[in-house]
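The instructor's notes for this session suggest beginning with a concrete chain rather than abstract definitions. Hand out the sequence below and ask the class to guess, before any prediction is shown, which regions might be ordered.
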Amino acid sequence: MQPSVARINDYGRYYKSALSPTLRSLGCRLVQWATRKYKGLRGHREERPNG
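After discussion, reveal the predicted structure:
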């Protein structure tokens, strides 16, 4: 496991409410990047899970 992933897991264990907005933003940016890089993904939007 990479050190950054381990840090996120440890931080999330104790401060989950503070980590959620950051990971949500990271996920949105990752989707934006993927849709720009892989043109076939355009128009395929996945429903965001609640919570």
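Then share the key points. Residues 3-36 form one domain. The CA atoms of residues 2 and 20 lie 20 Å apart.
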